[in-house]
Amino acid sequence: MAHTTNLDDRLFRAAALFPACAYGADIGADHGRLSCFLLETGKCQRMCVADISAPSLAKARTLIAERGLSDRADFCVGDGLSVLPRPAQAIAILGMGGRTVSHILLDGKDQLRGAALILSAHTEMMEVRKALAKLGYRIEKEEISRAAGRFYVLLYAAPGLEALTEKQEMLGPRLMETNPEHYRDYLAWRIQLAAVKRSEEGKKELFWLKEEYSRVCNGSND
User: Fold this and answer.
1) Contacts of 105 (CB under 8 A, 6+ apart)
2) 167: buried, middle or exposed (CB in 10 Å: 19+, 13-18, 0-12)?
3) 56-60, 85-89, 128-132, 218-222: which has the minimum mean pLDDT?
4) In sequence order, what are the residues at sequence separation of 6 or more whose Cβ sits closer than 8 angstroms to the Cβ of residue 181?
């Protein structure tokens, strides 16, 4: 194939976290660029390309057809993991709010069957981390992407037990351990967002973010 689908930094990092597998799933696929890339590069032999919106899925269907990959894709309109036509070895859920992602995971726990999870949320990543702990999943990797003028956390999780503190749920256990690329700028960005919150949880978040930012600035490898 002459070229592969162009991905922004967020989707490129998601694709890099996605393990090679016989059957993968992209839940909330929208335009289908991630699914198309995974099929083009041979990382996934077959994909479930799913979205709750039929018009959105039509965009993915058109893109994948243009690349001659339709025979390796199952297009599924529906909500969450209930659309999976067969067990997937890896599942991506991106581009939604954290509460939505957590509900998809918890409501679809019987469909997970030990699949690797590649997750990101525009908001409330804390809720995603809480859901993973309830499901018996361990966060193996966390990365930060900067795309479209904002930051995103992407994570890779696999079956395994891990007890997280509230601070780890809020800030990200692997982010705190590894100080990844963009981490300092990400913390500064979150501090600005948290500064306008007036709830007790917001005040706690702001305190922990400032504490972590100070740690990173005073001796991290960032």
Assistant:
1) 81, 93, 112, 117, 128, 131, 132, 135
2) middle
3) 218-222
4) 143, 144, 222
When the pLDDT of each residue in the chain is averaged and rounded to a whole number, the result is 94
Task: Identify the DSSP state of 162.
Answer: -
- CA dist., res. 65 & res. 184, Å (int): 41
Strand extents, DSSP E, the chain: 21-27, 44-51, 73-77, 90-96, 116-121, 137-147, 150-159
**Taking Cα atoms as reference points, which of 114, 135, 214 lies closest to residue 206?**
214
Asked whether residue 222 carries a pLDDT value surpassing 50, the answer given is no
Please tell me the distance from the alpha carbon of residue 213 to that of residue 220, in angstroms, as a whole number. 10
Domain boundaries along the sequence of the chain: 9-163, 179-222
Q: Taking a C-beta distance cutoff of 8 angstroms, is the pair 128, 163 a contact?
A: no
Residue written as token pair 């981390």: 129
Q: Can you tell me whether residue 40 is helix, strand or coil?
A: helix
DSSP three-state, residue 175? helix
**Closest CA relative to residue 134, chosen from 167, 107, 171, 98:** 107
Q: In 3-state terms, what secondary structure has residue 220? A: coil
Return the CATH number of the domain spanning residue range 9-163.
3.40.50.150
Smallest CA-to-CA distance from 42 within 28, 22, 17 is with: 22
φ and ψ at residue 104, rounded to 5 degrees: -60, -45
